[in-house]
Amino acid sequence: MSTLFRSSLLLSLCSLMILPLAQARTLKDIKKEGVLHVNSLELPPFSYKTTDGYTGFETELITMLANDLGLKTDFSPMLLDTIANDLKEGRVDAAIGGLEITSTRENQVGFTRPFLCAGMSVVSRDPAIQTRFDLENKTVGVLSGSTIQSFVQKLPFPKKAVVFATVNDLIYAIATGKVDATLSYKVSGPIMMKLYPKAGFLYGPVQWSIPIGAMLSDGDNSLRLALNGALAKSMQDGRYAQLSTKYFGENLRCKA
């Protein structure tokens, strides 16, 4: 190996070592472009895609908050398995779609203050399956990377968890009887039955309530603080209550 070649190779390696690692954008960076890039997990009525684009409670809410900050929004589909890295490396600024705020997730990513608190229910086509205790010896569909996947796996009785990559795949599996049940938000019931009237979905009683918020990078806090401020303003001036009532028929703001 020639001295010139070794020197060139060493220089190339050194250049790679000092290249800055991709990282989440700060609010200042985002404002330079003027666009907040948001990943959306398709979960009606929180966020879902129609022929006219993305819609839903969280879609409208984060658009309203972004507008208050002088920003536009750009939505794209999300996979739970990759979202933490996508946020950390700045490929996306925020993520929405019924994302539960849990201590486990907060060890990996950041969150806004809760957008709402919603009750979790068992969903099935079998009227005998009403609560989590009815899942014994049943086949339960779960979304890959979701908190429900972890919850079902920890249930202290025999059951079979079947993992799906997308919400649409999970919905199809329940509708066609490939799985016996899943767990989802009770407030999703009316719109899910409207979107899939022949599926025969039955929602059991609420098993527990959980806070939901926008997922962010756990690095720079400037975006989180700005979104939290805009959210607080929308709760004070009545816009939040109006939007929540539009989608859920009530104000689902978390109680203090």
UniProtKB/TrEMBL annotation:
SUPFAM superfamilies: Periplasmic binding protein-like II (SSF53850)
Keywords assigned: Signal
Taxonomic lineage: Bacteria, Thermotogati, Deinococcota, Deinococci, Deinococcales
GO CC entries: cell envelope
Solute-binding protein family 3/N-terminal domain ranges (all copies): 35-251
Signal peptide: 1-24
Primary residence: other
Record localization: Cell envelope
Name of the protein this chain belongs to: Amino acid ABC transporter substrate-binding protein
Domain of life: Bacteria
